[in-house]
Amino acid sequence: MTRFAIVVTLKLKPGSAEAFKPIILENATAAVRDEAECHQFHVLQSNDDPDTIMFYEVYTSAASLDAHREEPHYKKYVELAGDMIAERDIRMVTVLNPGNVADTLGAG
């Protein structure tokens, strides 16, 4: 079985990364915790440019992403972080091997 995913690259306005990180991390945590069809939501920060943030989100289907965008935690993220984002690139992709994930519960 395949899964639907998005890979998002954001270019934040200069110096916004530290304020942005807790907002997106709260959204990512809530998505995985509260949405049965959000299977992974990883937030990455470029080592070369701290104002470049990437997300890797895995959902059951494209409809699951649409449902995510209706959740209160997503709407809060948009409201709080919208002005920090200078550029956004979203790629919709298919995960060919969704089961290739180690059980990391409890890992630190």
SSE map:
Blueprint: E1 3-12, H1 17-34, E2 38-45, E3 52-59, H2 62-68, H3 72-81, E4 85-95
Q: What brief labels describe this structure?
A:
108 residues; alpha+beta; Alpha-Beta Plaits; 4-stranded antiparallel beta sheet; 4 strands; 32% helix; 34% strand; globular
Summarize the structure in words.
Strands 2-3-1-4 form a four-stranded antiparallel β-sheet, with helices on one face. The chain has three helices and four strands. The longest helix is centred in the N-terminal third of the chain and has 18 residues, at about 15-35. The N and C termini lie far apart (about 30 Å). It is globular. By secondary structure, it is α+β, with helices and mostly antiparallel strands. Strand 2 and strand 3 form a beta hairpin. The relative contact order is 0.29. It has one domain: Alpha-Beta Plaits.
Compact description:
This protein has helices at residues 17-34, 62-68, 72-81, and strands spanning 3-12, 38-45, 52-59, 85-95. It has 108 residues and is an alpha+beta fold. Helix 1 (17-34) runs antiparallel to helix 3.
Number of helices: 3
* Gyration radius over CA: 14 Å
Question: Main β-sheet: number of strands, strand sense, barrel status?
Answer: 4 strands, antiparallel
Query: How much is the average pLDDT?
Result: 92
Shape: globular
Highest-level CATH class: Alpha Beta
Instruction: Outline the low-pLDDT stretches.
Output: none
The fold-level CATH name is Alpha-Beta Plaits
Total number of strands: 4
- Strands in their spatial order, largest beta sheet: 2-3-1-4
Distance between the termini: 29 Å
Number of spatially distinct domains: 1
Q: N-to-C SSE series?
A: EHEEHHE
Q: Do you know the CATH architecture?
A: 2-Layer Sandwich
Structural class: alpha+beta
* Helical proportion, percent range: 25-40%
Instruction: State which percent range the strand residues make up.
Output: 25-35%
